[in-house]
Every structure is written in structure tokens, then in C-alpha cells.
Amino acid sequence: MDRARRRVGLQPIAIHALLNNNPPMDFAQHLKSQVDIVDVIGERVRLKRAGAGPRFVGLCPFHTEKTGSFSVHSVMQIYKCFGCGAAGDVFKFVMEMDNCTFPEAVKLLAERTGIPMPARSEHSDRESRLREAVLRMNEMALLHFRGVLMGGQGGEARGYVESRGVPMETAEQFGIGMSDRGGPLLDRLRREGFTEEHLEASGLIIRRQDGSGFFERFRGRLMFPIHNESGKVAGFAGRAMAKGDEPKYMNSPETAVYRKSQILYNLHRAKESARKAGRFILVEGYMDVIGLSAAGIAETVASCGTALTNGQVKLMRRFADQVTVNFDPDTGGARGAEKSIQVLLDEHARVRVLELDQDLDPDEYIKQHGAETYLKLLDRAPNYYLWLADQSRRKFDTTSTEGRMDAMRFLMPSIQRIPDKIERAAVAGDLASYLGVERGLILEQFKRAAIDRREQSPRQSSQPLSGAERILLNAVMQHPSLRAEIVPQLAVSVAAQQFRTRRIFEIIFQLYDQQPDFSFGDLEGRLEEADKDLLSRVLFADDIGETNNLEESREWARENALSSLRMLEKAARESTVAGLRQEIRQAEQRGDLAAALTLTQELDRLRKSG
Questions:
Q1: Using alpha carbons only, what angle is made at residue 452 by residues 448 and 457, rounded to the nearest 5 degrees?
Q2: In whole angstroms, what is the distance from residue 411 CA to residue 426 CA?
Q3: Rounded to an integer, what distance in angstroms lies between the CA atom of residue 429 and that of residue 446?
Q4: What confidence tens digit (pLDDT) does each residue in 34-74 have?
Q5: Average of pLDDT values for 71-98?
Q6: pLDDT value at position 450?
Q7: Beta pairing partners, 226
């Protein structure tokens, strides 16, 4: 079985059905050798080098955590989360992050590295073909909508865009377009050869209820393309231009490439700026994003016309911990901000809230007052709990005791979401003082709530690994060129049978006999879950040959592995000598001199051989 197949963690039959000869696995192997998993994952997760060695750590993108338990190994080219257990190679990471098949992951990585894909088989899997068809239709729709906006039908829409202070250059940058009243786009897609299945799957086209044909979803609307994190057009939002045309905003439905809860408007442009700034600005509307971005405030995103989801917050937290919420200053905006704060806190984001005066939304404010003034307000934006306290004062009569307690009850759910108990107590105390509530009473309530929230860390085995087995396991797995020196000696060593990692080594010995250059995936695929976790913990340990120089690391591993083998051999000989001496004494005590003589001769031969 091909190593690259096993590294993805799929069985041979499943891989064959998934790939159906597309792409060839030798190409996948070549591509993998050209890709650095640290670079690929580093585009999605903020990684920091752990020590001087080949390990990098960060917050896991697959589950919510406060302290990073996600590790990437630059030598092994693997990742492992010690919180949720997610693990794999670069292909597995792309598949999980982009919710795509193996062939699509290979294609994405090939495009990223600029390596041409081999000639494609016409028998690729149906899901991949459908996703690719939807993406192609979206690109065609983008060009079509742009053409309508800049043509004779787009005068009114162009006037609206310009009235919002958006230059045509910016409109082009963001792909703003205009949908006509229906017909041309459908005809164009049909001429391109897309099937009825493709048309319906795109979300751009709707089948008539009576079955008489199809019509276009977006008609006479200002169109905003919505891109996925990779920058591909995943869907659209259309703003009504005609009076009485409801709803005001219409979004693409869920499709094979558009999951509303997993996409943020403008993330593909904003993520690098957010990484540098250490924050995102979360706004409500597409025009707010465009207005702030055009003013140079590029770390701005919106939630694509839906309530903020945990998945969207996880997307942001890959690049920045802080999120400043800047919703419209009306009642609806305040309610949206309150709900968003809860979701942000659930995902351990650091939250601030910017509320603009003069009842202006972000786009309007920055056009009237300029980017510099906006940025000053942004830097002074208060922590979310102070903003919520002001909201509670508006909701309740805090001049009365009952009103103050109602205000605190309103604030408690948000404060209870703070994971750090010291910060939680400090915030609770500050808010109690701010609202004039007895501090001790509030702190007592939060202490009771904290008992239910106490985090339980998983129990780790107390049985330590010997230094020798850790050194040998690292050498064998990180440096395949050393296996010929190590594995044959270790396979006949009695000491290896006493290792805590003995089941791992047993599989290593079997694999080595079959295929000396076996991969990490080959080994992991044959292990039980407990041994998989143990293997990862050994390979990601922080005190085994800490160096980022591969040649130095290999030489260090070789010297220490051979030294460990000599030590094990010596220990085994000493154990055998001690056993023989004990048997000789017992034979002499029984009066069995013949047996004692035989054992003594064996002891002499052992001493001479050493």
C-alpha cells in the first residue's frame, strides 16, 4: 500500500474509491515532499516555535481552547492536538480545514505551490466534480454581474454605489456587481454545458415549483461576492434596489462550497492584516466592510447576514485573539452585539465594543470623520463588560435595589463565560461597584457558578518512559536513515520487551521487515488509540535533541541511540550475570554440584564475550 495513502488515514479500498486514479499517488508523494506543513498550517493557525527544535505550537483550529495544545513537527511533517486528538499530515489538515476530499486537497496544495497537476482522469469522484462545477459557475456569475453593473442596465446601481462613497476602483476590487432581471445568466451557464444538477446545486438557479423550468435567484439586485478563506467565490449576497423588493438582503443558500456558519465576509483579505494588528473588527454590513477596508482598515469582517456563529469565531481566532464589535448604533445593532459577545466569549476571544456617536454606522462615520479619528476611537474601545453595563443601565432602573440586581442578572451570563477565575472575579467586582451592588454578594454568586465551570484536565499515565526508549523511538521515526543501525539490534534486545512503548516497537519491527522506509502514517495506522497518543507524546516531547539543524539532529540521534543500545546491552548482560549467580547459589545450597559447575561455565563464557 502506498505510504501517502496511509498517511491520510484511509483504507486502501476507500482511497481507491475516493481517488479513482485522480490524482496519481506518485504525484501526491512528490507534492508532499515539496510542501512544508509548518508553512501550510501557519497560514491558518498562529504557530510559535517551541524551544530550538522542530516543534511549533498554537491554538487548535478544531476545537475551542485557551491554552495551545496543538503541535506541528517540522521534521516528521505531522500535526497533533493533545486536547481533541486531531492528528495527521498536510493532506489531512487541508481536508479537515476546507471540508474537502483528498483529490481536492492535493489540488489546493498544488495550486499553492505552483506545481502543475498531472492530466486529470475523467473518472474523478462525483462530489469533487460537483464542487468544482459550483465554483466555476460562481466565477462566471461574478463576471456576469460585473458586466451588468458596468453596462447600460447598471446606471442606477452605479449611482447607489457612488452615493455610498465607494469609488468604482474599490467596487471592482470587491467584485461588486448587478444582477439583471433574469435570463442571461441562466442562458450563459447552459451554453457552458452545466447540467440541471449543476444549476440547482449552485444556488444561483431555482427550479420552478411546477417543474416547467428554471429561473435565476438574484434579479435586479446589487451583488456582493462572498469568498471563502482561500479567496474562491463561494456565494453571493444581493441587496434589493427596487422599492418593495423584499427581503432587503438575499444570500445564497447552503451549497457544496458555501456553509454560512463557516465563512466570514472579507476574511480572505482581512486575515493577514488582522494577524499583524492582533485584532479583527466585526461589523454588520457589507458596505461597512468595504468602507473601512477602503480607508485602510483592512482587518474588517462581517458575518454574511447571519448571526455570528462559533465556527466563524474560530476562523477569526486562528489569526487574532481580539475582536472589536462595531455594529450599527440602533436597537437591532445593540441586540446583535449582545448576542455576538456571548459567542465570542464562548470561544475565549478578547472582546471590545466600539459604539459610534451621532447614530452613524461605521461606513458613514469614517466618511464623515476620517480613518484617523475612527482609529483613535477603535484603540480606546472599552472592554465588552463595560459596554454591557451601560446597556443594562438603559434596560433597568439602577436607582433602585431591584433594578440593580436585575442589571447584574443580565450581566452574569456574559461574565460567567470568562474562563479565568481570577479575571472573572475581578470583572464581577468591578461591575458590582459600577452598578452599586454589594460586592461580596456578587462574588459569592460567581464563586458558586465557577464550581460548575471548573476545567478538568485529562489524567496522564504516571508510569514514566525510560530515556533510552524515548531516544530510540525518536531516532527510528525522525531519521529513517538510522533504522538499519538501530532496528535489527533492538529487535533482539530483551530490554525492549520491558519498554512501556513495547507494542509500538513490535509494530516497528514488523514494518521494518516488510518495508524499511515505512512512514509515520504506516505505523500509526496499526496502533491502538492509547499507543497512538503515546507515540505522539514521545515525538513531540521538548527535550529530545533540541536543534533545528537537521544534520546536527540526525548526528545527535545516532550517537545517543547507539549509546542507548550499548547501555541496554550492558544492562541486559548485568541482569543475566546476576541471574546466573543466583542460580549457582541455589544449586550449591541444594548440593547439586554438577548443575552449579555448568552454570559457572556459562557465567565464564558470558564474561569473556563481554
A1: 130
A2: 14
A3: 10
A4: 889 999 999 888 899 887 678 899 999 888 777 888 999 98
A5: 88
A6: 52
A7: 235
Extract the runs of DSSP E, i.e. beta strands, from 443-540: none
Query: Which CATH number among 1.10.3720.10, 1.20.1260.10, 3.90.980.10, 3.40.50.300 corresponds to the domain 126-258?
Result: 3.90.980.10
Sheet strands (E) in 368-430: none
pLDDT one-digit tens code per residue, 444-471: 666 665 555 454 434 444 456 778 888 8
Q: Up-side HSE of residue 39: CA atoms within 13 Å toward CB?
A: 7
Q: Any bridge partners for residue 236, and if so which?
A: 225
Fold of 3-113: DNA Primase; Chain A (3.90.580)
**Ramachandran angles phi, psi of 512, nearest 5°:** -65, -40
Q: How open is the CA angle 60-446-334, to the nearest 5 degrees?
A: 70
The one-character DSSP state at 70 is E
| 350-353 sheet: strands from edge to edge | 300-302, 279-283, 322-325, 350-353
Distance of alpha carbon 218 from the chain centroid: 33
Question: What sign does the CA torsion over 487, 491, 493, 498 have?
Answer: positive
Q: Top-level CATH class of 262-380?
A: alpha beta
Record the pTM: 0.67
* Identity of the residue numbered 151: G
Q: Domain locations in the chain?
A: 3-113, 126-258, 262-380, 388-453, 467-604
Percent of the chain past pLDDT 90, that is, above it, reads 36
In whole angstroms, give the CA distance from residue 550 to residue 547. Answer: 8
pLDDT digits (tens, 9 = 90+) for 570-592: 776 676 777 778 888 887 888 87
End-to-end CA distance of the chain: 43
pLDDT the model gives residue 19: 39
The fold of the 467-604 domain, in CATH, is DNAb Helicase; Chain A (1.10.860)
